[in-house]
Each structure stands twice: as structure tokens, then as C-alpha cells.
Amino acid sequence: MQENNTTHQWSAKSMKDFTVFQAELLALNKAVKYAATIKTIFPVTIFADNRASIQASSSPKTTNRTARENFKIFLENPHIKLLWIKAHVGYFGKEAADSLAKTKAKSNDVQLDIKLSKCHAKNILRIDMMKQWKSEWDEGDTGRSTFNIFSKVSLQSTNWNRADVLFFTGHGPLPSYLHRLHLANSPLCSCGEIGTPIHYATSCL
């Protein structure tokens, strides 16, 4: 954009799994690449309102592939400057870019096919895994004694010791469990009741 006149623009419909950071970083990448093709002795300034994408593209330690590419272009083209501006305050170029993005998002265009970052791909897989795990845990017919204690799935450790695990799961040297595995002739305690952990803890003292 030059003197409030659009000289070049680019837009694409991102994938549904794209984060705001990835979309901003990709748009910045396209702007940086275009700026590098401009033959001029004057500074070229790119304005962006996303601090995360600016910081990632300005750091030599960034691990994001697109941000590394941006940093390299900035390094090779010192006349290209990157500045932060506040969002939604009426900057003409910023408002034009936002309008273009909204139009593209509502369009029926084919989504941009871009390889997800390793970190983002892991996050998507983790979310899907947790959903599947929760569904199987809620609708399952095994492990119900543990389900009554922990109805929600979690990757955090419970810090149970061996005795806790044996008691709360019932998977220990108890008649009820051994009988399930066909390792005992009867599930009954010597007192005549089912030999479960709760029985030994509350009744057969």
C-alpha cells in the first residue's frame, strides 16, 4: 500500500485448525516476501497488530518454520522494517486487510493447504485423543469402581501408591478378583460375603 492506495494484496482461506497466530504469521510471511521483491532505496515498513507473530519473526531463536523464514528475509533485507500498531483504531491499511480477511473467510474458496507445525499437530492429536478417551471412559462397562472416584479423564498423575491402586481398582489378591481370573474357586470371603476391597475395609475387620 502506498499513499492509501493498494498496490498489491493477497488472501487465502485458512484451514479450520489454523490458530490466529498461524494465520497472522502466514500473512506476515506473504507481506515480507513481497516487500523483498520491491526494488527501492527507501525503507519499506510492514505494520502488524499481532505481537506474537512480530516477536517470533524478530527472534533468531524462534523454532517456528514460517517465523524463521521471516527472520531470514529481514536479515537479508535490512531496509524492510516491521512495526506494531494497535488493532481496531482506524488505520486504513489495517482495516482494508481485516475486510479482505472477513470476505475470504465467508467465501466458498478451497482452503489453503499448509502443513501444520509439529507443536500444533500434537495439540490437535491430544485434543482428539482426550475426546475419544472421555467417550470410552463414560460409556465403558469396565473399571466402574475407579470411574466412581475419577469420572473425568486427565493426563495428570493421581500419585497413588501400589496399595491405593490395588484397593480402589479391586485388582489385588482378593477372592472377588481372583475368581474373575479363574484363579480361585469362589469369590466369597471366609465369612460368606463377596470378598471385595470395600468388604474387607468396612465389614470383615
Automatic annotation (TrEMBL):
Gene3D superfamilies: Ribonuclease H-like superfamily/Ribonuclease H. PROSITE patterns: RNASE_H_1 (PS50879). InterPro entries: RNaseH-like_sf, RNaseH_domain, RNaseH_sf. One of its GO terms (molecular function) is RNA-DNA hybrid ribonuclease activity. This is RNase H type-1 domain-containing protein. It comes from Araneus ventricosus (Orbweaver spider). Residues 1-106 form the RNase H type-1 domain.
